Amino acid sequence: MKPFQYTRLSTEDLSLGTTLRDSTILAGGTNLVDLMKYGVEEPDSLADIGKLPYAQIEESDKGLLLGALVTNADTAYHAAVKSTYPVLNKAILAAASSQLRNRATNGGNLLQRTRCYYFYDTTMPCNKREPGTGCAAIKGFNRIHAILGTSASCIATHPSDMCVALAALEAKVHVLRKGETIVIPFDQLHRLPGDQPEKDHNLEPGDLITHIQLPAEGFSEHFEYLKIRDRESYAFALVSVAACLKVSQGKIADIRVALGGVAHKPWKLKEVEKDFFGKEASTENFQSLAEQLIQGAQGFGTNDFKISLVKGAIVRALNNALNPS
Amino acid sequence: MNTNLVHFTLNGEPVEVAIEPWTTLLDYLRYHQKLVGTKKGCDHGQCGACTVLIDGNSVNSCLCLLVSLDGAEITTIEGVATADNLSPEQQIFIEEDAYQCGFCTPGQICSTIAMCNRGEINSEEELKDWMSGNLCRCAAYKNITKAARRIYEES
Amino acid sequence: MLNIGNKQKRVDGPQKVTGKATYAADIASPFYHAYVLQSTIACGSITAIDTSAAEAFEGVKGIFTHKNLPERLKNKVDYTDPLSPPGKPFRPFYNDKILYNGQPIALVVAQTFEQARYASKLIKVTYEEKKFKGSLSDNLKNASADRAPEPASNRGDFKKAFKNSDYTIIREYRQSRNYHNPMEPHATSVEYKSDGSLVVYDKIQGVASSLKYLNGVFGLGADRVQVKSDFVGGAFGSGLRPQYQLFMATLAALELKHNVQMVMTRAQMFSFGYRPEVIHTMKLGCSKDGILKALSHKTVGETSTFEDFNETIVDWSGLLYKCDNVNLEYELTPVQSYTPLDMRAPGGVSGVYALECAIDELAHEAGIDPLEFRRKNYVDYDQNEDKPFTSKELMACYARCEEVFGWKNRKDLSKTEPHLLKGYGMATGSWEALQQPASVSLSMNEEGTFTIKCATADIGTGTYTVMSQIAADKLGVSIEKIKFMLGDTAFPDSPIEGGSWTVSSVGSAVASVCEKFKYRIADIWKRNNPDYQAVAFEDISFQKGKLEYGSKTFAFTEIMQQASKEELSIAHSESPAAGQNTHSGYAHCCVMVEVTVDKDLGIIKVPRLVNVSAAGKIINPKTAENQLLGSMVWGLGMALREEGMVDTRYGRVMNANFAEYHIAVNADIHDIHTEFVEEKDDKVNPLGAKGVGELGIVGLAAAISNAIFDATGKRLRKLPMLLDDVLEA
């Protein structure tokens, strides 16, 4: 690791507001320290936010407020998450390993970086790591890469499982910006690569994620998190689907489908979902939704299979959500 | 020298140390404390050989900067047994032959202890998933699962 | 007090569960830490290398590159090791040439590991790149039989027999590259002593190999260097040859006159040997009633540009079934990569994969149950060598596996969720039962504790335990009275730990040295007890640390008081049994698997794996079973998970880590079972034991492939078989 300065932030430091802008934020470190060892990230200074007061989960009638510093494991096993937001519980527990979930924080999970082979290998061209060097994945190994929302400069995916569930739940992210808390809808946190793939998200330097607000509706009756991966545990998703349903007399009252492993951000299209409100909760309609959701999907060779795979996965996830075992 | 002060307890003993901030818990244990029971299998959180307990939770010590562990209670494999006796987890690993080369074993044992502390295992599938963060290239998985199940049931 | 055949707990268990087992990187001395910088191109040369910034970095003690390699390492230096294949072994820093992507090009030695790692990134390297062939497929037209060893002789008339067969198949099977990846990364710790001698703690499957290499390269004989290796954190073949960390740590220690430790990173574990990518072409023909008439197996494998790595692949096809018309071909083609390296069941696992898939395809063509087809073509002698087997209880394996698995009624059991397709497959497996020369020493102390020494290794296989069991039984003492020591060049010679021959070779030597001890102690007893001088050795027994004659007992320790210390220090060298020449020795197994395939999502799972093995006398069923289970998981990994992904544009392994090179995890393993049938063998070696470390992986990938066909009707003729292969087939 490149030598760096380290500051352990206290609540008082935070009110000064300057420290964060010039530093890289350290929380659990499970992704940042990994990237620093590979030389992918080489910050000059780290601001450790571990002692800041964002390590609680608070319940209210508006929903659940997850502190950014609560670990993924503590979140998944929280009684209210298990009972009200089981899709989030399932997504978190499908991710990484028990050790990583014990250390990784909620805020950090949102900001984890892609697993693209070429991003991680500092000897390779990568527009995300080193803008302007090109994308080695487009004509290389891209089995784990995106099929939706790609650009000529980047086909990386966002690797999180938790974020796919949060997208489906339509969570909101609380961000401390210049001393004020702003609220960002989940689908506006991450971005597509476009011609600036180095930017994973829409936060500004100095921003600090403090909480994730879950809405009151948790879809505890009809939900599924389906993760398809190369081994039965401890592997990133090739494709994942968070599916949430509300059904009234066989008709879709609400439907949420978010996809992981297919784009630079969790993939969810509200306008497509809305089209199905009031329609019958049937395999045919789920298939139709799947088609619309992935319209325009494009493979790059070794990831072509994801197009049919994700369709099958969406239908399966929705059927599983509809008929809980 | 660029160092930062950090306090923690290590296997029950309080420690205060000024350390370079890029020192990971794993390197601190192995190089500074000579507690070499904790192994470096990948150094990137991908194998679990470096698993230790922080406040009772299993974590990959290779991804923890020591400076960020101020106030933590750290237990390594060397802190699991008492001076004279193996812990029940260690005894069960021997009885079930839940290893071959032994390199991943300290991490595996720490994971079983954390699994009992957490107490959230409700099925064989969940147990195997919990233990999947500890790779075993000798692939003694059947026996590791047997040992982990016994440890969980007897805890 | 029988230990042999007992489920003895590992004698090194307490060390392993407490973290006190010391592997090569766990030595407590203060070390400088060495870190290797690797090339970022695959072919060409280094035109400039600027180490100034790295040299100036805090804590850096020395930097080594091709620019400052000591002259004495350049001339008349022997870089080979006992397992070097034909060609020129890799010589680190020898010149400016780049032979593969990831080649070590500089070594940074610093006070701490972090300093060395970061300083290595400050080295600026300029290259001149050349075009190259990055993969087997890129360079098939340069494949040649000249570079490969001659396979077993062809027999009969394959062409004619193939033409006259009622059913024929011609198929191609591909295997991707696999990496050993033991959990313990390769490491060497070198202690530099005040007299300039070295103690080298190396990760190696036989300390003699490290010593041979150090002698050849650095001129360090056994008088100046001792190589030790108490514990090895898995190896699976990666430690069969000394790897470059041994060179690096030794070079730095000698030049800096200081203790130096080098531990490879996980990424660097992908920068040396591997199981090579191969392409098999199989042509098989049989008669209407399923009798195998013609068999041709051609394999093309990758090797490096500097060594001709070879393994016994195609010969297995001439061995497993009765067939009188056999054609075997083996070719190699160089790619811009490091040399491949023997990996668990080298050759056998590759050859038998192709054979056992092809046999299944032919059985299907002929409309015969795959188990029945194999029984029809059973062979009870080695047609390649024209020799009988020392023993072969494969028929008993088939029968027992059929019963345990429920093969006959397998389709009746096939109830499952609607989207899951279920399938069943099987294969035969086999592995050599060789014996190598081995030497051991034995001594007894005043407390009656025996110390037995041998330079062998325990790579997790249970050598410490099994040797202690054998000695305890042969000596008639409890196992606590045995201290078996290994992994030290100061100990008597041993074959490298590989080839599943350690029990057979070292175990037989241990048994013999114990016999010698009994004769010796009986002689001393008779010498000092004139009344018993005429007693025949056969009338004496040895139990509980005592010599028994009639109703009288004499403790070993008591007899020892009347002997010199030298008398009770016994050495023994064991030669392979005569049966090793007159007969062919092999262990055998039958494996049956159940798979499910998700017909919409392509996901392949293996809910059930059953292996039944015949491997002679099983010394320790606990450790033997564990070995078998582990190698079965390896078979699953090979079939469904592992693939070294080389981007041929760069010649670079793109998944050189444990997150993307998928070895099986705990959750991948469901119902997995192994057992042994009884097999008596009085020819293979004095113990009648055959090794089991490699047997379980052989055939398993084919069984899974065959089961996937049974489930889906699709033949996925490649490894690994991934969900995309199912969806795209």
Automatic annotation (TrEMBL), chain A:
MF annotations from Gene Ontology: FAD binding; oxidoreductase activity
Xref: InterPro entries: CO_DH_flav_C, CO_DH_flav_C_dom_sf, Diverse_Substr_Oxidored, FAD-bd_PCMH, FAD-bd_PCMH-like_sf, FAD-bd_PCMH_sub1, FAD-bd_PCMH_sub2, Mopterin_DH_FAD-bd
Keywords, alphabetical: FAD, Flavoprotein
Annotated Pfam families: CO_deh_flav_C, FAD_binding_5
SUPFAM superfamilies with a match to the protein in the record: CO dehydrogenase flavoprotein C-terminal domain-like (SSF55447), FAD-binding/transporter-associated domain-like (SSF56176)
FAD-binding PCMH-type domain location: 1-219
Protein name: Xanthine dehydrogenase YagS FAD-binding subunit
Organism: Leeuwenhoekiella polynyae
Automatic annotation (TrEMBL), chain B:
Annotated SUPFAM superfamilies: 2Fe-2S ferredoxin-like, CO dehydrogenase ISP C-domain like
A Pfam cross-reference name: Fer2_2
Transmembrane feature ranges: none
PROSITE patterns: 2FE2S_FER_1, 2FE2S_FER_2
UniProt xrefs under CDD domains: fer2 (cd00207)
One Gene Ontology MF term: 2 iron, 2 sulfur cluster binding
Domain of life: Bacteria
InterPro entries in the cross-refs: 2Fe-2S-bd (IPR002888), 2Fe-2S-bd_dom_sf (IPR036884), 2Fe-2S_ferredoxin-like_sf (IPR036010), 2Fe-2S_ferredoxin-type (IPR001041), 2Fe2S_fd_BS (IPR006058), Aldehyde_Oxdr_Iron-Sulfur (IPR052914), Beta-grasp_dom_sf (IPR012675)
Protein name: Xanthine dehydrogenase YagT iron-sulfur-binding subunit
Alphabetically ordered keywords of this record: 2Fe-2S, Iron, Iron-sulfur, Metal-binding, Oxidoreductase
Source organism of the structure: Leeuwenhoekiella polynyae
Record-annotated 2Fe-2S ferredoxin-type domain positions: 4-80
TrEMBL record, chain C:
Domain of life: Bacteria
Name of the molecule in the record: Xanthine dehydrogenase molybdenum binding subunit apoprotein
Annotated ranges, domain Aldehyde oxidase/xanthine dehydrogenase a/b hammerhead: 18-131
Coiled coil: none
InterPro entries associated with the record: Ald_Oxase/Xan_DH_a/b, Ald_Oxase/Xan_DH_a/b_sf, Ald_Oxase/xanthine_DH-like, AldOxase/xan_DH_MoCoBD1, AldOxase/xan_DH_MoCoBD2, AldOxase/xan_DH_Mopterin-bd_sf
Residue numbers spanned by region Disordered: 138-157
A GO molecular function held by the record: iron ion binding
Record Pfam families: Ald_Xan_dh_C, MoCoBD_1, MoCoBD_2
